[in-house]
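yo

u said u wanted the structure for the complex thing, so here. seqs first:
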Amino acid sequence: MSEILEYKGVWVLVEQRRGVIQPVTYELLGKARELADSLGVEVSCLLMGFKVKDKAQELIHRQADKVYVVDDSRIEYLLEEPYTRIAADLINKYRPEILLCPATTLSRSLAARLAANLNVGLTSDCTGLDINPEDRCLLQTKPAFGGTVMTTIISKNHRPQMATVRQKAMKEAVADPQYQGEVEVLELDASFFASRAKVLEVVDEAATSINISDANVIVSGGRGMVKAENFKMLEELAKMLNGAVGASRAAVDEQWIPYSHQVGQTGKTVCPKLYIACGISGQIQHLVGMQTSDIIIAINKDPSAPIFKIANYGIVGDLFEIVPQLTKRLGDKS
Amino acid sequence: MNIIVCIKQVPDTNDIKIDPAAKRLVREGVKTMINPFDMYAIEEALRLKEKLGGKVIAMTMGPAQAESALREAISLGCDEAILLSDLAFAGSDALATSYALSQAIRKIGQFDMIFAGKQSLDGDTAQVGPGIAAILDIPQIINVRKIQEIKEGQIIAERMTEYGYEVLQAPLPCLMTVVKDINMPRLPSLKGKMKAKSTQVTVWKAADIGAEEARIGSKGSGTDVWKIVIPPARPQGKIFEGEGAVDQLVDTLKGLIK
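structre next:
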């Protein structure tokens, strides 16, 4: 137990894609700064990838005190084995008390392998993080069952305390070009980079240019859309609102729109600032995927649809008349 | 091919109850089902068996009643079923669960692939699959939406990301978690249902899998539940009706996106 006190500092696992630091990293840094200040410790980042060295300064500008960089062509893509090996080695060496990771698909996979490798606890998809002043423990709050309950988890006897943090749940660290920090580029021997799994190809899908996990606004369609072509009007409204298009399971199963757009129990959980549900009745399996959105607007012809029970605003009517009108009138300069 | 599918029995989404005093989900007397993502894991394992031969072992950890989830797996076509059930496992988090399942897989011995669902409905951690891969020290491919090829001891599969997908190659044995896009699960056949009734479900206790006491149950868990709060219901919304309803909605939207 006394060993726990030897662990100091808050670490952030950096998410980068093709050498570009992803905004979720800055959200983690915002929270990390706050936690570190209340604990009286430093914030460090672990940046792994290829051709990422030059990006370390961007993390310092977001108030990181220290950045550890591992830059190597063999870890250009996120592969759990080498990433775990490297992170575990550095954690055992520098002993941070907290490690925050993005709750993105690949970072969640890495965090889970890393936690099991270190034999420590991990709380996934946190939306709230605080320090308990009594014992310096990290209070990790996450929605369970799609926000039906909020659970707060602690990790009493293990260090580091690991959490993955949901995108858009924390405020970005403010950029401060004057902020001073230290960058350490690590040279590791070849054994660290070995991976049995290899990435053969990376395919971006045009339809997911704004993905629903990142979007501030989601315009979603359900069974009431009737056919695939009708999703075009949702795309137009989404474009007007700088948002993404989502869908209920019914619409995906009808193959009106790819699975990557599915919100709900067997799709993605989202919490945008604005969620517009068009022709979605609102079965519980859909609601658990979106009911923590800030504002929900429902458009449905059935006044008894359950979606209206959780909507902030609703309109009972024909979505094929209402949606194009919304798009047009939002575009009007007035 | 020896394929192991790790599944979980979860409360039916339509029947979720919370015990705030005990800080946990009420699991007694609640309708249950196989975790939805695990149905796709079972289906993919069965399809590979049908193509390549071998057998599929379904495994879960849980109370005695979790046996019904395994019988359902048998009814779909799984060949064997193993239930890890022991009071000593009670209170296990993802870490302790990963360890217990890994110990059971070691006891099974020879295997080529392990399948699991992307994540469970109740825990929602997406940690047990990668946790098993870490403890057994095998490669993992998560969020698999398609298996392209299996040959010469290598698997090529597509993992789904926020941006599209990535094609990965890994040697067997390998652990994969699957998403809904990978297949369309079958329904149980009549023959399968009969078999499910007569099949003997193997039950292993902690001692049977040589689990270290300090690594299972609450003791072996890395996390503790500190508190559970049921958030207040969303406030009563405003429904726009009649003439001018669209105008009101447009004004509201304009206000929101300002």
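The two ends of chain A are 64 Å apart (CA to CA). Chain A touches chain B through 88 residues (CB under 8 Å).
cya
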